[in-house]
Amino acid sequence: MKTQALLALLAASICSVAAVPSPQDAANRKAGLRLIKTSPKGAPKWISEEEKIVQYAAHEIGFVDITDITDSQVLRALSADEDEDVFQARAVTYPTAVSKQAQANPLINLVSTTQPQSWMTTLTNYHNRYYRATYGTQAGTWLYNTLVSLVAVNPAITVTRFTHSFNQPSIIVKIPGNSTDLVIVSAHYDSTAGSTTARAPGADDNASGVVVLMEALRVLANNKFKGKDTLEFHFYGGEEGGLLGSAAVFANYKSTGKTVLAVVNQDMAGYSPSGKISIYTDYVDSALTAYVRVVATAYTGTTTADKCGYGCSDHASARSNGFPAAYVCDEVMKTATPYIHTANDALSTIMWPAILRHTKFTVAFLVEASYL
Ligand SMILES: *[C@@H]1O[C@H](CO)[C@@H](O)[C@H](O)[C@H]1NC(C)=O
Ligand SMILES: CC(=O)N[C@H]1CO[C@H](CO)[C@@H](O)[C@@H]1O
Ligand SMILES: [Zn+2]
Q1: In this structure, are residues 190 and 129 in contact, taking their beta carbons and an 8 Å threshold?
Q2: Which of 91, 144, 167, 358 lies most in the core, judged by the most C-beta atoms within 10 Å?
Q3: CA nearest ligand 2 atom 7, residue
Q4: How many domains does the chain have?
Q5: Which helix (H) or strand (E) holds 278?
Q6: For this structure, is 188 an active site residue?
Q7: Residue 96 located in a structural domain
Q8: The domain that contains 138 carries what CATH number?
Q9: 36 located within any domain
Q10: Has 59 been annotated as catalytic?
Q11: Is residue 249 part of a domain?
């Protein structure tokens, strides 16, 4: 008995020691290696920055870079299964039908692809938008300046750079509402294709999501839209490096106790042979996802559904920090763009009706959800 108790005690102390970074971890960190996870239950592993892009991103293997994540609750959430409700204390009740068509439809009618085409041209002309390269930083500067001039028409709107440990910032645009509760739409603006230096126009992945948000913002800003809730547009850096930008933003929102009613991430909005918006169902909040489907169906017609796996995009960061998140994409996996993460993910392959559809959905969602 005694021996067993002693063993148990020993085991407990070994466990608690294991939670503290080992000398090897410290050495790996010092050598610039990054700790990544590719599944909820598998052990994380140390790899180089270049390996992340060459061996994972380029092969469509989803991963989360957890090197800088210190919140044990978030780390636990990143080890939860795709349908596990990690933070159960949430109290958002979403409507089962849309009700703001009278306000949303006139705004939707103002959506066009004229400016998105020009923004997409600029974004895809950067050699790449790798978050550690000068190009990635330049793209961030262009995006920030363009957003500032886009919202100048309404002084209530703010544009903020959220800086990271890498050069490329995330950028957050805020349309204040009557309440500080937040409804967030997001997309990442970095891109890679095969290596850290390769040409990566990243048109569908994910400049398409970026221009969709910009066009929705243009329409809402021009018309001085103000909702009950505060609307935020998030443009993340470092997504291709393992969801780095979104992880830092949502860690900040968690530690500062922000109330977030919904996060809808849109990556890839410009390639859709099916002509239907696809709403993904793994690693998301199921109640919010049901609501997103209600809105998308009411405003754009029938939708499709699929799963995209662990670490697939930035909604995973919102979810692991305890915020309700959904993921909307242009197509199901099987018929998705064949050009992803290659030099061929070019402007010429973009299907503009898909961009239009996603922008209309985004405007509709923001108007409807601003009353949550
Ligand atoms: C916001 O507050 C103003 C002033 O009380 C009110 O007139 C307006 O209807 C409110 N807007 C929404 C969307 O609740
Ligand atoms: C990972 C990444 O490259 N960004 C996202 C762009 O959108 C697609 C949509 O499925 C995601 O797979 C990517 O994760
Ligand atoms: Zn990608």
Answers
A1: yes
A2: 358
A3: 267
A4: 1
A5: strand 278-280
A6: yes
A7: no
A8: 3.40.630.10
A9: no
A10: no
A11: yes
